Amino acid sequence: MSTLKEKKLFLLDMDGTIYLDNDLFDGTLDLLAYIKKIGGKYMFLTNNSSKSVDKYIEKLARLGIESSADDFLTSTDATILYLKAHPHKKIYAFGTTSFKEQLRGASLPITDKLEDDIDCICMGFDSELTFKKLEDTCILLGRGVDYIATNPDWVCPTWYGYVPDCGSVSEILFRATRRRPKFIGKPEPDMALLAIEKTGFTKEETVLIGDRLYTDIACGMRAGISTIFVLSGEGTMADLEASKEKPEFVYENVRKIYEDIRK
Fold it and tell me: Hey, which residues does 91 pair with through a beta bridge?
């Protein structure tokens, strides 16, 4: 079993791990400062596809964290890479305005209207969901178009509890159409492996920290790296006991991680 003292690259989930809505968790700034002090690197890996990296940079700045585009990998980034490797004539973008802008900015042929030549649906976490989008998607899935989704998360945490995320909406569509999407983000290992490739650290020097067993911890396990499960977000000890995904470390929150790593 490895120790946290060996780790140099810290892959951090965001919602439920380092903050909740607009509240930064105690210990986050201390942990980030420690990583910099030891000459390490942290990257933020999020399945939340509703915001662009620019929006995340602005949000973290409001919370007191300076960051740049190089500090982030999102499920939208991974989805764009997939769509470029698997070209389509026209893609129906099911998501927020920001999500559509990201796909359009990557020069992908997207539309948000029901059109005859659409051959792919790309769905993200949609905080601007309408029934029209659900109806359009049902029609397109009935035509047999390809079906891609950024992430399988059931819920997104908020200050008052949870709201349906991409996985929940895809389940609604499955009940209506009997079709499920190909999910791109965590738990697939691509985001973690891409972070390792970009930074030059080894797998042995890398640890992924997250609050979801079925996405964060599963991603790290599939990538062959150490994982830390925090109990500050969606996941609970009861979930851990029932899960086949077993993290290498379990902590109450990032404050506890920092305190342990400093011993």
Answer: 110, 120
Contacts of 20 (CB under 8 A, 6+ apart): 157, 158, 159, 232, 233
42: phi then psi, degrees, rounded to nearest 5 = -120, 145
Q: How many residues does the chain have?
A: 263
Q: Quote the tokens at residue 83.
A: 């769509």
Q: Tens of pLDDT along 200-222?
A: 999 999 999 999 999 999 999 99
**Which tokens in the block code for residue 14?**
């965001």
Helical ranges in 43-159 per DSSP H: 53-62, 75-85, 97-105, 131-143
The 120-123 sheet, strands edge to edge: 110-111, 91-94, 120-123, 146-149, 182-183
CA pair distance 154, 225, nearest whole angstrom: 24
Q: What is the pLDDT of residues 105-124, one digit of tens each?
A: 999 999 999 999 999 999 99
Task: Note whether 8 and 205 are within 8 A (CB).
Answer: yes
